[in-house]
Amino acid sequence: GQSAVFFVGGVITGASQVAHGMVLVGDFNIIRYPSERLGCESFSSAMFAFFNFIESNSLVDLPLEGAFFTWFRDSSIPSMSRIDRALVSLDWEKHFENISQRVLLHVISDHCPLLLEAGVVRQGHSAFKFENMWLQAEGFVDRVQQWWVGYSFTGSPSFILA
User: Fold this and answer.
1) Pair 7, 57 in one domain
2) Beta-bridge partners for 39
3) Which InterPro entries does this one have (predicted)?
4) Residue 16: what pLDDT?
5) 136 and 106 within one domain
6) pLDDT digits (tens, 9 = 90+) for 81-114
7) Helix or strand or coil: residue 111?
């Protein structure tokens, strides 16, 4: 309840200081929707605070694959909920293709481990590639020298080379 609201408030302060995307993964010890806890039928103030934290920080609550719940308590009255999750910023989501979080089997802990798969990094431009065989092509080296001399750059040597 109250500790969850305080925790979310603390993370919001830290989250605003991150400039280039972020990933938050772990046991948040709170659910976002009533359907994420077995037998839960209504929203609590802590759930609203958690929902608002995700929305106000433009985070993406990644879909869960492999299971619906991440925490289990085996007792006379079974208890299950999704309190573990990965939240990513929009910048981070845009940087990777096919991001997913997969629930793995829990063996020792009552929490299931999560596997965050980021897929392939999206690249705006393809990287420059150089093939050594180009050096064998007649006139290639002369052509590169002509191009190199034809350009004029100012700046540090590393900038000029880049």
Assistant:
1) yes
2) none
3) Endo/exonu/phosph_ase_sf
4) 46
5) no
6) 999 999 988 888 887 777 889 999 888 889 999 9
7) strand
For tokens 């037998």, name the residue.
Answer: 39
Count of the separate structural domains present in the chain: 2
Instruction: Answer yes or no: pTM beyond 0.90.
Output: no
Give CA–CA dist 80/69, Å, rounded.
6
CA 87 vs CA 27, 44, 47, 93, 98: distances in Å: 11, 20, 15, 10, 14
Buried b or exposed e, range 103-113, using 16+ CB within 10 angstroms: beeeeeeeebe
Using DSSP bridges, classify how beta strands 71-73 and 100-103 pair: parallel, antiparallel or unpaired.
unpaired
- pLDDT above 50 for 162: yes
- Model confidence pLDDT, tens digit, residues 11-66: 555 554 455 578 888 889 999 999 999 999 999 999 999 999 999 888 999 889 99
126 is a domain residue: no
Q: Which domain holds residue 143?
A: 132-161
Q: Are residues 37 and 82 in the same domain?
A: yes
Instruction: Look at residue 124 and tell me if it is in a domain.
Output: no
Residue 19 and residue 56 in one domain: yes
